[in-house]
Design a protein that fits this description.
- It is a single chain.
- By secondary structure, the chain is α/β, with parallel strands linked by helices.
- It has a domain of 185 residues: Rossmann fold, CATH 3.40.50.150.
- Helix content is 41%, strand content 25%.
- The protein has nine helices and seven strands; from the N terminus they run H-H-E-H-E-H-E-E-H-E-H-H-E-H-H-E.
- It has a seven-stranded mixed beta sheet, sandwiched between helices.
- Helix 4 links the parallel strand 2 and strand 3.
- The mean pLDDT is 96.
- Bound molecules: S-adenosylmethionine.
- S-adenosylmethionine binds next to helix 1 and helix 3.
Length: 272
């Protein structure tokens, strides 16, 4: 079953809206912002002439990049989903950044940009969704200039845990969400191998943990956004899914919720 992020053009408006809302909510969340800023802080933005955000979605990270680079830097956001690029353009306009970012619909496995054309290539929670992550990494290696940097940030979604109650019911629901929205839940564990094959050096590695105990914002919103699409995709039956999701809401209200997931940033360098 393909990850819905690979097939947004075939999803209904309701699913696209749920995905767009999720991406914006998540991208503005303090814990998620901290992880982004930690790896942004490791990159040398001074003198950047061209930066690309591959799989930019609604542009929540691309807009944050505009704070890091000078106005002379060309900032590009690209995504496979035309529907999300439209949202990105609207949000960029509303943020007063219309002239600063150029958006385009493009497949991160095969863009139209020239070899060696970017100082920094960003892929923020993209590689876990792309069909053929090796092809995408090879494309990032082609796009970066010699000595340029590639930041791959994503969830190690195979480590995703939600719920403190019945472990089997929790695992069934989490598996259904992963089947529906994460095509490559193990890919970050293969990144050292994939990077070596793409001719990239690991210049930095930042392990992160996002966990919530008692109350929830991040994982509760994840359930709200993805349980419906999981039912629609046939990954779980509606009654089981709704019962489980309601149980998580009750746990959150009662202060007994639990959720956690590892996130990693790989900072890869293209050799000179
Ligand atoms: C979880 S979203 C992340 C969006 C954004 N980077 C963020 O952090 O908010 C994954 C994105 O990857 C995009 N995507 C999936 N496969 C792609 C591909 N082959 N080429 C370009 N974008 C792709 C989806 O359309 C979606 O916007």
């Amino acid at each position: 079953m393909p990850d819905i992020y690979q097939t947004l053009d075939q999803q209904g408006a309701e699913t696209v809206r749920a995905v767009a809302d999720r991406l914006e909510f998540r991208g503005e969340m303090a814990d998620f912002v901290k992880m982004r800023e930690r790896y942004f802080d490791q990159l040398d933005w001074a003198g950047c002439r061209r930066v690309v955000d591959l799989g930019c979605g609604t542009g929540v990270v691309t807009r944050a990049l505009a704070d890091r680079v000078g106005v002379e830097c060309e900032l590009v956001g690209s995504d496979l989903a035309a529907e999300l690029i439209k949202v990105a353009e609207e949000k960029t306009q509303a943020a007063g950044l219309a002239g600063r970012i150029r958006y385009e619909v493009a497949d991160s496995r095969k863009t139209r940009d020239a070899d060696d054309s970017f100082d920094i290539v960003i892929a923020h929670t993209v590689i876990s969704h792309v069909a053929d992550p090796a092809a995408m990494l090879a494309e990032t290696a082609r796009l970066a200039r010699p000595g340029g940097m590639i930041a791959i940030f994503d969830g190690d979604y195979a480590s995703l845990t939600i719920g403190a109650g019945d472990p089997e019911a929790n695992a069934e629901a989490v598996d259904a969400i992963l089947q529906t929205v994460v095509g490559n839940p193990f890919v970050l564990r293969h990144l050292p191998f994939l990077a070596r094959n793409a001719g990239l050096e690991i210049a930095g590695f930042i392990p992160e943990l996002l966990a919530e105990a008692g109350e929830t914002a991040f994982f509760g919103n994840m359930i709200d956004a993805y349980i419906g699409p999981s039912i629609q995709a046939g990954a779980i039956d509606a009654q089981t899914a709704e019962h489980w999701a309601e149980g998580q809401k009750t746990a959150a209200r009662e202060g007994t919720f639990f959720g956690s997931c590892n996130y990693y940033t790989y900072l890869l360098r293209k050799p000179e």
